[in-house]
Write a structure and sequence with these properties.
With about 260 residues, this protein is α/β, with parallel strands linked by helices. It is built from eleven helices and ten strands. The structure holds 6-acetyluridine 5'-phosphate (6AU).
Length: about 260
């Protein structure tokens, strides 16, 4: 099914918007902007904005963070039409994550269309985040699997995570996962650990190719960080990943 056909079946407005945006803009590329300076983050958002469906941030690694950064990023998101995914990986009890999502320095729920959470605390984490995010039309991704070697997110942990998602379809819009885990068009699968060549880094990260992730494993969105922003020409590299991800999607929906 095409992304935009799937959008019609979703109740969550962020899921609908993301799936429609991907088909309109013809991109299933999310860029992981793991940089520590405002100017670097803004440069990535401005240069790569036209190529991506999602800008994934780790806002707490930005050393010179201030409110203006968010204002400028929001302008770029409107100009280039992409969504924000703050990769906060919430992992605490419902009451604590509610504050981490809404309050503090970052006020994540005010600007991040999408956030993610571990399910290790149990479903209370979803309830807490939902209290803040649902009234704002936000979406949550659950970490069902991870890309790192030796991850404990597998087998019964993954199965329980899927169950929690199915019980919260108004707010949970999908998964961080290495593959499609459920045959449900409303769940969007995002896969990190993607490079144009298979491999690994020195700290346990493992890489698969866009073709493997989108075509073979039936995931929906490739998340690419260092493969793009550490290259000599990030824009040219982003175009390559975009093309590879889109071709794999075209192949999947036509075969
Ligand atoms: O392409 P990389 O290896 O430079 O960056 C991958 C990005 C990083 C990680 O924090 C994130 O993807 N990530 C996640 C996410 C998105 O939740 C989960 C995971 O299992 N592996 C992973 O790398 O920003």
């Amino acid at each position: 099914m095409k992304y935009s056909e799937r959008a019609k079946q979703c109740v969550n407005p962020t899921a609908q918007r993301l799936l429609n945006l991907m088909d309109e803009k013809q991109t299933n590329l999310a860029v992981a902007a793991d940089v520590t300076k405002k100017f670097e983050l803004l440069k990535i958002a401005d240069t790569l904005g036209p190529e991506i469906c999602i800008l994934k941030t780790h806002i707490d690694i930005v050393e010179d963070f201030d409110k203006e950064l968010i204002d400028e990023l929001q302008n770029l998101s409107e100009q280039h039409n992409f969504l924000f995914f703050e990769d906060r990986k919430f992992a605490d009890i419902g009451n604590t994550v509610k504050h981490q999502y809404r309050d503090g320095i970052y006020h994540i729920s005010d600007w991040a269309h999408i956030v993610n959470a571990h399910t290790v605390p149990g479903p209370g984490i979803i309830d807490g985040l939902k209290e803040v995010g649902l009234p704002k039309g936000r979406g949550l991704l659950l970490l069902a699997e991870m890309s790192s070697a030796g991850t404990l997110a597998k087998e019964s942990y993954t199965k329980e995570t899927l169950k929690m998602a199915q019980e919260n379809k108004d707010f949970v819009i999908g998964f961080i996962t290495m593959r499609q885990l459920l045959d449900d068009p409303c769940f969007i699968n995002l896969t990190p650990g993607v490079k144009l060549a298979v491999g690994s880094d020195s700290l346990g990260q493992q890489y698969n190719t866009p073709e493997e992730v989108i075509y073979e494993q039936k995931s929906d969105i490739i998340i690419v960080g260092r493969g793009i922003y550490q290259s000599d020409d990030p824009l040219a590299e982003a175009k390559k990943y975009r093309e590879a991800g889109w071709q794999a999607y075209q192949k999947r929906i036509t075969t």
